[in-house]
Structure formats: C-alpha cells, structure tokens
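HOLO CASE FILE
Compound: adenosine-5'-diphosphate
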Amino acid sequence: MGLVRNWRTRSRRLGWRAALCCIFLVSIAAVPSASKEIVGRDPRVLILYPYDERIAATTAAGEAVRTRLLDATKGRIDLFSEFLDLSRFPESEHVGRMAGYLSAKYADRRPDVVIALGEESARFISANRKNLADGARIIVAGFSRSTAEEMGLPSDVVGAFSEFHIVKTAEMARGLQPAARHLFIIGGSSKFDRSWLATARADLAAFSKDYQTTYLEGLAIDEFIRRAAEFPSDSIVLALTIFKDRDGRNFIPREAVKQISETASAPIYGPYLTYVDYGVVGGSVVTFESLGKTVADLALDAIAGKPVSSRESPQTYVADARQLQRWGLSQKNLPLGTNQMFREPTFWEQYWLATVTALAVIMAQGTVIFGLLVERRRRRAAETNSRHRLLQVVHLNQSATAGALSASIAHELNQPLGAIRSNAEAAAVILRSERPDLKLIEQILVDIQDDDQRAHDVISRIRGLLKKRGEIDWQEFDLNDVTMSAIRILHGEAERRGVVVSSNHAPRELPILADRVHVQQVILNLATNAMDAMLDVVTTERRLMLETALTRESKVELSISDTGSGIPDEQLATVFEPFYTTKPSGTGLGLSIARAIVETYGGKIWAANRPEGGAVFRIVLPLARSG
Ligand code: ADP
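Model generated. Tokens follow.
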C-alpha cells in the first residue's frame, strides 16, 4: 500500500489532495537548529498520523520512521504515536478537542521532537505547538516544499519533502521502449490534476520533442478507457493524477489508473509507488523506506543538537515485473538499481540452497566413486603384479624342486627304460628260436607298452614341474589326487633316503578350486622339508605321513607329518618368514612360497610339533563344493 493509495480523499481542498499524492513543489528555507541538550533521560519523539491506523500510506511511513529511530538509538528513545483521524473528523471542534486532549496528555512529558506525517498533521502541530510541544523541534513529512510554502508553516519547521520528477519516470520509459514514437500524458480535471498537467508540460518540454505527444485531459473516465485501448503499440503513456474526471466524478487516482491500464494497448508509467500493482510498469518514486530514513535522520540530528535543514526524500526506480512481462519489456533496459517488485524468483533463487546442496552431495559422491575406482584399479594392478611375481617365484621354486629331485627322477626313469631294454632283448632271443613262442612275444610287448607308459608318466610329471605359466590355471580337482601325484614324484627320492611314505586319504572326494601344479608344489616343499628333517634319524625310523580329511567346518585339510627333529616352539611361526633357514645350503623360501600359495587360494597353513616327536604341517583350504 502506498501513500497515494491510502491517503484519504474526502476533503475537497487541493492542498489536502496534494498531501494525498505527495506532489508538492515549494520548499521552505533551511532552519538552523538550536535544540537544547537532553540530559538524564531518553529523548521523546511524538509521531502524528493524520488519519486512523488503517491508512497504510501513513502507517507504513510511520513504521519506517520508528524502525530507523529504534535501530539508530538501540532502543534508547521514547516513541509516542497519535492518530489524529482528521479525515473522518475534519471539524474544527474535533481538532480543538484533540489539541486540548493531547496538550493535557503530554503536559508532563513534553516531546523533544514532533514528526508530523502528511499535510493535516503539519497544520495541526503548527497551530497547536505552543500548548502541545512547546520548544520541540517540528519535522513535517510526506508532501512537497511548494505545499509547505502554501501552508505558510513556521520558519523553524523542517521538512522531509517528497518531490516528483515526471522526467525521471519518462526517461525510465524511454530506456524500456527505445523504439517508441508516441507519448501520451494522462491527467484529470481537478484543480490539482490540471496544475500537475501544467507542471508536467513544462518539465517534459524537451523530452516530448522526440515523440508525437498528446496530452489526454478534460476527458470522462470512459473516454480515457476507450482512448487508452487505441494507443499505437509504440507509445509511452505517463499517468499523472485523476482526482476528478470531466464529468466531475471523484477518483482515487490509482483506481482510475487501474481502470485505464486494464484495456490499454501500450505500457503506462507513473511517478507514485502506489500505482505499482495497479497496472503501471513503474516509475521514479519515493518509497516508505526512503521517506522513513529521511525523517528519522532529521529527528536524530535534531535530538543530537545538530543543525537541521529541510531535505528531500531520495527517489528510487521501481518496476512491476509482471507488467514488464505483459509488454515484453526487457529488464536489462531498466535503470541501474531499479527495485523490481512481484518478480517470480528464478529457479536458482528459489532452490539455490537445495541445488547447491544436491550438487555438493553429487560432487562428493562423484569424488568418492572416482577415488574408489582409482583405488580399485590400483588394487587390481597391485594384485596382478603380485600374482605375476608369485607365479615367477613358484616357477623358480618348481625348477629348484625338479633339480633337487633329478637324481631320483632319473633313477625312476631308468627303471622302465631298463625293463624295456631287457624285454626287447628277450623278445629278440625268442624270435631267433626255431619256433618262437608268439604268446610270450605278445606278453613281452604288453610289458614294453606298460613300461613305456610309466616312463611317459615320469616325464610328464617333470614337465608339469617345469612348465612356466603366465596366469593361474584355475581348475577344480580332488586334493586326494594331487597328493597321490606328489607322492609319485617323491617316491624315488624317498626310497633313496630310506624314508617310508604312507598316506591316509579321506574316504571321499575333496574338491578344491586352485592351480593344481601350485598345490602339488606346496606338498613337495613340505615333504622335502620333512625328509630333510629326518636326515639324523635312524633309517628305520624315517617316516613321512600324508593325510587328507574334511574338517568339521567343511574345509579340506592336508597334514604332512614326519618323525624328524621337530621345530623349536618359538620358531613355529618364524619358519614361514622368507629367508629363514637352518640348512647350510637352504634358501629359506620353500615355506614362505607355500604360505603365499595357500593364502592365494583362501587357505591357511601352520606348523606344530607332534607329541611323539617330529613336526606336522597342516593346510586348510576351502571346499570347492559340498557333496
Ligand atoms: P629351506 O628348506 O630352504 O631352509 P624353508 O622355508 O622350506 O627353507 O624352511 C625353512 C626352515 O624351516 C628350514 O630351514 C627348517 O629349519 C625349518 N623346517 C621346515 N620344515 C621342517 C620340518 N618338517 N621339521 C623341522 N624343521 C623344519
């Protein structure tokens, strides 16, 4: 609600209407202050409202004054408000009664400053200041200097005046409508309306030269409405005031402007804040905040004993965003600092917090995901790397085992080869006889084939030990089988060393998922170590036992025990450390490789001493499938 909109309009006097619209053109002279200093109490300020509390134009201005005063003094101020109700009770009797009542009311609390909002309040306090506020500084506000002059206010009264420069509003329109060629100025038929038209005509003399200019005056409201509907679209329309039309009908100007704007075919501008929301695009206006600040600053200076002089409330450009949209006017062409009202907040303005939060969360998530991906890649690369290393080391270990077993392997190979040779010689002798026993020859050939198969088996076991692989060859196999094939490889060596090898297999299949050659290598490492540990034991007591079982936790277990020296208890864990060895030509790598292999397949390995002497190594691996 604005000053024009709510200032009451019952009075017919032009001066009153001028206050209504804040269109006042005369100034009063600056008056030096001679305020007494206020000692020992908070300053008293009385704000006089011309109407009752419902008239938002004055109450909003008064509220702005109060807020500013309370802020500036941090609440150390005594504020009083009086609603004079002079529009509904304009009679001199009421004025007199009101003056008497207020004089009595404030007899013991004389105000230091009286702020009179609107012309009626200004007249009231000027006439009654002796009884009501003797010695107080009087500040008037809400009308123009010219009105103040017409009123003949006392010379020490200072004003916060509101002046209306139609040219500023016109320039705002030109900025928004650079292609406009027509200019229409609308004004009513009251004395004030006509005087405003005359002022505008003079002020706009230069501006209107650039346009085909028409002053719409002396019309009835219906004619205004009809003419407005026929404005060429490249028109700028400036609305002054219509207090009265040609037929003598009275209007609140903003209401008349509203009726005209509803059917107008071109944008309308006006110099009053109260016209905004009544169909105008905007204009250069005095806001309540601006008025409140000017008045309060004057009052604060007066309280501080500083010299005060009349001032003008600064004007602000305001625009109605809905009207800008209605006429397709770009907000980019608004004067700098224009206060846009009724603007729909943009998506960003409305949801910036939610948007920023969502983006931050997404970015944080993205960063975490990216980090995790990088981490995963790095881990995979490291895993691949360590797998390759393991494969290389295991291969070296296999080669070393093959080397260590070469004597017994050669021995093992010699047996079938020797048998083949003997059989072949026997067959040759038989064939040279007169009546060769073909049945016997046939038997010899079968034996030769069997021996050849045995030799072939030995060679393929060696080949398996020496084969180099680039990747783990995952396969499902029975732990019993791989234990047996390891025993076959060791067989010759064990025999050479006088070690009796025995095995005790679980009565069922024990499927595991791993690289068969790797598991075989673990068994070979453990068995070789066991045989090494029995070097000092009498030959009759050298026993190597391999046992497989299914544990209670449904895991696969292999234990390799010996009757050797055993392991000092404090070394039971250390034996798995790389390079730990007690042998003169040992590498200390066999057990660490065995542990690396077992852990690769999700298993565990540990060592213990048997109560009856010797060591036992146990391996537990996951069962590939149950049943
Ligand atoms: P290396 O056999 O080259 O010494 P290992 O890592 O295979 O390397 O073994 C490390 C050490 O663990 C051996 O030197 C030995 O002292 C001890 N050890 C391994 N197995 C047994 C066993 N069955 N009985 C006694 N000691 C053992």
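CASE NOTES: The longest strand covers residues 543-550. The chain has three domains: 1-164+286-313, 166-284+315-341, 471-627.
CLOSED: yes
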